[in-house]
Amino acid sequence: MTRKRVKETTIGSKQGASCNELLALLNEYVDGDVDPAVCKEFENHLAKCNPCRVVVDNVRQTITLYRQNEPCKLPETFRKKLHSCLRKHWKKSKAGK
Amino acid sequence: MKELQKQDTAESGLLQAARTGDLDAFEKLVTRHEQRIYGLARRITGSNEDAQDVTQQTFLSAMQNLSRFHGKSAFFTWLATIATNAALKVVRKKRGLPTRSLDEATAPNADGKIPHPEFIADWRDNPERLIHKRETRRLLDSAISKLSPDYRAVFLLRDVEELSVRDTAKALTISENNVKVRLMRARLMLRERLTRFFGDKNRSYAPVDHSHNDPHNTGEQS
Description:
heterodimer, A: elongated, disordered N terminus, B: about 220 residues, mainly alpha
């Protein structure tokens, strides 16, 4: 996770993946869109590297939290107003045809 | 899957009826999607009033352009596209920004640089438990409100509403690559902020490089 020493290997090379390479593929890994061979390399890295494992876990937890968070309820008064407005416009547009 | 197919068939029927002038069918379509569209608008604008305006604009626009919807994407994706652009317009106007998104080539955040994680720690609790805590909603709202509107929109469409990368790109008229870059940054920024709230300091790790020359370096804080 350094900003100074970026390892120049590619994922799947003999030396293994660096944290930076892993971070670059984070989206694809979290979304399950990486090549299975790269995925294996990714998992080998995570097994040895706690910071990367935790970052991946945190990202997954972040997405889960936002997905499970119930959105604000549509106020009933607004709902009635919305439908009344739509009915009015619908009738007006049909009358004009 | 069967349930989804049934829903799609029912929706196609309602769309067909609405196109031929059936107001009742159109209102049923509105009822199906109004909560989700309002929730999306509320999360982008951060305001109940703005979310109501955006929701109304979205369904009025859908009503007026129903004949232009050919069903190439899901009906919700079409509505979400209208709502997101209307919501972004409101937010940009409030912030004094141009009401149309910056040209992709000049967008300041499309440079592909990845923000480095700074605070790395296991969370004290899992999302299933956190979601039931009263303060969680406030923390989620606070964290997402600090993202730029463009990042917020990408994260919400892709990760919350689960649109594909292609549909998200089409909705925001940006490239798929730009969606990926913005999504990565949004995810990492939200992770950073939420980990500051939910992270366990006793299970934190230093954000140092460890290229695994030293097999004993696991990044653990001493």
